[in-house]
Design a protein that fits this description.
alpha/beta; 759 residues; Rossmann fold; elongated
């Protein structure tokens, strides 16, 4: 590309490219290129003021115009080779082909082996008590009834608002399992989110009470919510996922040993002994659908919810047997005194009978029925029959009731609105009286004063940070592709650069090569950012779910991500520095090498924090660092502010000045600008004034012909024209660290203020 561009043009030798020339008060030299002057442009011919592009490229880089099409052909061959290699690899290597059938287990530690042996012994002894619905001390008992009445919910839409819930009444008592059913779009999940206090948009009207008291700040800590999508840290084992929940959601005063023991009880309850040390994996890869559902429930149970357990379609995507197993577990929990409310989509008759109560919604978020189901669904069937919807004996009541209200494939039975029938029924009045009775009982037994009632999180900040950082570090360690890719990229770029500029000398050309080699460091941030962003975004998806349960704060999440990146950043900086700095022949003095390493490390940290801060935007600042375009040549608008704002200005300035400061320059024979002095004068007599007023040196000052002028005598003279100074190198490092601190602060603030998901 350079040869294609340069061979068409001619470069004119004027101004600073003429030596010797008039500088300051010196006026003895011709203003145009004269017979006793030389052009410093590579490829210049003595006495000629024009330099062809071909000559310039040949002298500077040994590029030839005749090689253009050869080089293009080589690029095509590279492209074809890479395509062929990709096709071969895709055909030869079947990565993850058997992943659905493979469960990956973490390396078994001594502690885990003992725990697994105990679980297997319990499993072998049988679960007669649990099969009879007795859970014992595994779960806590909900001591308060949960009620809601006259509940409305509206959301803003273009042009106005839309009501999603309309005058909904109901309650959940301790020890009961309540099903929430309705057609698609009836508002089942919406109602569940409203009751759980997880809605972030819209307006809610009505009373939602726990034990007769409004739900406070700590309500979400006292409840558990199993979402429909089983979002978990894919690299965590089942036991680790449950422990993570227990460590952060159970009271801080509970000892670690007690929390660990409780987690083992939950594993046994949910019959996950065989997969306790299995990694969860991604949906579709790793644990199966049913096992993931059990993990989701287990994570919530590990928190020891004191108030209520919400589940959003826990049987979704499961076959009949798996769905029955999940509901059987829920029945066990309810029998132990847990209050449970869950949405469910068209269960079979056997599954439907496991529930104690039913809350049925029709489109528009209106309640159609709330009350007991009964054996063989007798209470629900009788309610329907009294209103003209006789359920056939061979029909599934759960499916029939949806058909009756118009939520199935057939038209609604009867001309009357079922929501209106419900509001006119005695059953509705019984529900309202029961809610009032629950509230009256609650007033007779006022709750004890809880000093932590307004505490948003169960554990203190530094405990959260410790647990979250440990999990994030473990996740990074178990994803070797991420760490290896970063390390490999740093190593390859450093090695290619250092081998390209191997053992640089002190010539003018080597001086330029040193700057080019240093400039390669500015390539790394874009690569680092592109690797950091996906990790941050995937971790944020998990945080969104966990933050709804008040497990840990946004600040902890952001700091945990940053701290987990630190070991990899240091390792990558060391790798890049060692493979680049010494093979390239840079200054080995401890102060120079040490500064170079710290600047590379600061750049690494800056890149990581920038990637985490922006998450989706990777700006290219390299054009404004002062090497590709010197500051003086930039447009005034960019020069005024972007040059100084660009962090790469500090990176390049610090590294270039540290490496080139005091470096003596010895021009090679081909690098001298040769000119002839006037007859009777030596080179020093003719050009001495110019050399003393500018930079560089005369190689043969006493000669009377073929004066050899080198444009630089020391490295400082080279970077002076780039507005770089050795005296500001520590300031530049400090500014890089300040940029890193700024990125971190913005990331923390953004994590705190901005909501990544709306519900």
């Amino acid at each position: 590309m350079m040869e294609n561009e340069f061979y068409r043009i001619e470069l004119q030798c004027v101004g600073n490219y003429i030596v010797p020339r008039n500088v300051g008060s010196i006026t003895k030299y011709p203003t145009e290129l004269g017979p006793n002057q030389a052009c410093t442009l590579p490829g210049a011919t003595p006495g000629e003021s024009l330099v062809t592009g071909d000559a310039y490229m040949l002298a500077s880089f040994e590029y030839r115009q005749k090689d253009i099409w050869r080089n293009f052909g080589i690029l095509v061959l590279f492209w074809a080779a890479f395509i062929a290699l990709q096709v071969f690899a895709m055909e030869k290597f079947q990565h993850g082909a058997n992943a659905r059938a493979v469960t990956i287990y973490a390396k078994e530690k001594k502690e885990n082996k003992e725990l697994n042996d105990r679980l297997q012994q319990r499993k072998a002894a049988g679960r007669k008590d649990q099969d009879n619905g007795v859970v014992g001390g595994t779960t806590t008992t909900s001591g308060k009834a949960f009620t809601w009445e006259n509940l409305d919910y509206t959301v803003p839409v273009p042009g106005g608002t839309r009501q999603l819930l309309n005058k909904v009444f109901g309650y959940v008592k301790p020890g009961t399992l309540t099903a929430l059913m309705g057609s698609s779009g009836a508002g089942k999940t919406t109602l569940l989110d409203v009751l759980a206090g997880r809605k972030t948009i819209g307006v809610i009207h009505g009373d939602v009470l726990i034990g007769g008291e409004p739900t406070g700040v700590a309500f979400q800590r006292g409840t558990a919510y199993c979402e429909q999508l089983d979002v978990h840290e894919s690299t965590a084992t089942v036991r680790e996922a449950l422990r993570f929940s227990a460590y952060l959601r159970q009271p801080y005063e509970v000892t670690k040993e007690e929390k660990d023991a409780y987690v083992e009880e939950v594993i046994a309850l949910l019959e996950m002994e065989d997969i306790a040390d299995a990694m969860i994996g991604q949906p579709g890869v790793g644990l199966g659908v049913e096992a993931r559902k059990r993990v989701t429930i287990g994570v919530e149970l590990a928190a020891k919810p004191q108030l209520l357990l919400f589940l959003d379609e826990p049987t979704s995507g499961l076959d009949g047997q798996s769905a029955y197993n999940i509901v059987r577990f829920l029945k066990k929990l309810a029998a132990a005194g847990q209050a449970i409310l869950c949405t469910i989509h068209q269960p079979n008759a056997l599954l439907f009978e496991q529930f104690d109560n039913l809350l049925l919604l029709q489109r528009g978020g209106e309640c159609v029925y709330f009350g007991p189901i009964g054996k063989d669904s007798q209470h629900l069937v009788r309610y329907l029959a009294e209103r003209g919807a006789e359920c056939p004996s061979d029909a599934n009541p759960a499916e029939y009731v949806l058909e009756a209200i118009g939520a199935g494939s057939r038209e609604r039975i009867g001309p009357t609105d079922w929501a209106e029938l419900w509001r006119q029924s005695t059953n509705f009045e019984q529900v309202r009286r029961e809610i009032q009775h629950i509230r009256a009982e609650a007033t007779q037994h006022p709750p004890e004063s809880d000093p932590k009632a307004n505490q948003e999180y169960a554990t203190p900040f530094f405990h959260q940070l410790k647990i979250v950082s440990e999990r994030t570090l473990t996740a990074f360690w178990r994803q070797p592709d991420y760490g290896f890719t970063r390390l490999f990229t740093h190593g390859v770029i450093a090695l290619i650069t250092s081998l390209t500029f191997l053992n640089l000398g002190n010539s003018t050309q080597d001086l330029q090569y040193r700057v080019f080699a240093i400039f390669q460091a500015s390539v790394m941030p874009a690569i680092i950012i592109s690797q950091v962003e996906p990790m941050f975004i995937m971790a944020r998806m998990i945080f969104i779910r966990e933050s709804s349960s008040r497990m840990y704060s946004q600040i902890v999440f952001a700091l945990g991500q940053l701290l987990a990146e630190m070991p990899y950043s240091i390792l990558c900086a060391v790798t890049y520095f060692v493979l680049f700095y010494y093979p390239a022949g840079f200054n080995t003095a401890s102060d120079r090498a040490g500064y170079h390493f710290f600047m590379i490390l600061a750049t690494e940290l800056f890149s990581v924090t920038l990637g985490q801060m922006l998450a989706a935007l990777t700006p290219t600042f390299s054009l404004f660092c002062g090497v590709t375009i010197p500051k003086a040549s930039m447009p005034a608008f960019w020069r005024a502010w972007l040059y100084h704002l660009d962090p790469f200005t500090r990176l390049i300035s610090g590294l270039v000045s540290t490496e080139l400061h005091g470096l003596p320059i010895i021009c090679q024979a081909s690098e001298f600008s040769i000119f002839q002095p006037p007859s009777g004068e030596t080179c020093q007599q003719w050009a001495g004034d110019f050399v003393n007023a500018t930079v560089g040196y005369l190689d043969n000052p006493a000669a009377t012909a073929d004066c050899r002028y080198c444009p630089y005598s020391v490295g400082d003279e080279f970077y002076a024209g780039l507005d770089i100074s050795f005296s500001t190198r520590w300031r530049d490092l400090g500014i890089m660290l300040a940029f890193t601190a700024f990125n971190t602060i913005v990331t923390l603030i953004a994590s705190k203020l901005f909501k990544f998901a709306k519900r």
